[in-house]
TrEMBL record:
Gene3D superfamilies: 1.10.150.650, Metal-dependent hydrolases (3.20.20.140). GO terms for molecular function: 5'-3' DNA exonuclease activity; 5'-3' RNA exonuclease activity. The lineage of its organism: Bacteria, Pseudomonadati, Thermodesulfobacteriota, Thermodesulfobacteria, Thermodesulfobacteriales. InterPro entries: PHP_dom (IPR004013), PHP_domain (IPR052018), Pol/His_phosphatase_N (IPR003141), Pol/histidinol_Pase-like (IPR016195). It holds the Pfam family PHP. Residues 2-67 form the Polymerase/histidinol phosphatase N-terminal domain. This is PHP domain-containing protein.
């Protein structure tokens, strides 16, 4: 098994990068990608920890992009150089926007009569990027809601009273930053775009023209039928089919590393083909 979509405490996961690597080995994974939101800070620790453990490690990142549609769009960057100045500058802008967004969400919750502070969120994040899962976990801890899902439904989801839109790059900006770091851009969890098969094909075609290298076909929320559709799109547009669980640790307790909700199986071939595509484009 492999898992090419995971998060650590560097963003909104609950396992440190090193702990995540050891969990992957414990679970019998042969390849792991760390794809934290808008940051590459966890890659150094994870990469160092993976050496000598028999685990193929893929340095990655996940970036939100603007999407004029019913859902939301994220792009995964694989085999990125975490020391790339261009990528780090782009991510620094997103991190600044994230900090401003978090402050506005705190203010909205306070205006609703909920006692919550930015300092509490920073403590919960443990030095990583603060995200909505940290807000949700803190609301549960304070007894404002009973479950994380309730926190999103009542306060944090799009359209809810405390929601603030996230800063996003254009597709071109995201792809450029990933390629400048030597990486491959891959469309994450296309199910979350909420597009018809025909509209999805048109969108993938447009991204292909911009340099898209892959599509996440195997994913926790994908049905077998949707996975088949993504595999067909991969064949049609000469894209690498990838896959991952979107593991966040205890922030998404139902999702298991490498297994998603329990029945996810990402073929090892996905890693091999992804690496071959990267090497064919000049990767080390």
């Amino acid at each position: 098994m492999i898992d090419l979509h995971t998060h650590s405490t560097a963003s909104d996961g609950t396992y440190s990068p090193a702990e995540l690597v050891h969990l992957a080995v414990q679970e019998g994974l042969s390849a792991l990608a760390l794809t934290d939101h808008d940051t590459v800070e966890g890659l150094f620790e994870a990469q160092a920890e993976a050496q000598g453990l028999g685990l193929a490690f893929v340095p990655g990142v996940e970036i939100s992009v603007r999407f004029e549609g019913p859902g939301h769009c994220h792009v995964l960057g694989y085999f990125v150089d975490p020391e790339s100045e261009g990528l780090r500058e782009t991510l620094a802008l997103l991190q600044q926007a994230r900090s401003e967004r978090n402050l506005r969400m705190v203010e909205k919750l306070q205006a609703l009569g909920i006692e919550i502070t930015l300092e509490e969120l920073k403590e919960r994040a443990g030095g990583g990027e603060i995200g909505r899962p940290h807000f949700a976990a803190l609301l549960v801890e304070k007894g404002v809601v009973r479950k994380v899902e309730e926190a999103f439904e009542r306060y944090l989801k799009k359209g809810a009273p405390a929601y603030v839109p996230k800063a996003r790059l254009t597709e071109e900006e995201a792809f450029s930053a990933i390629r400048a770091a030597g990486g491959l851009p891959v469309l994450a969890h296309p199910w979350h775009l909420h597009l018809s098969p025909e509209a999805l094909a048109r969108y993938v075609a447009r991204l292909k023209d911009l340099g898209l290298a892959g599509i996440e076909a195997y994913y926790t929320d994908h049905t077998p039928e949707f996975t088949s559709l993504c595999l067909e799109l991969a064949r049609r547009f000469d894209l690498v089919a990838t896959g991952g669980s979107d593991f966040h640790g205890h922030n998404k307790p139902d999702i298991k590393l490498g297994r998603g909700f329990g029945n996810l199986r990402v073929p090892e071939e996905c890693y091999r083909r992804l690496r071959e595509r990267w090497e064919s484009r000049g990767g080390a």
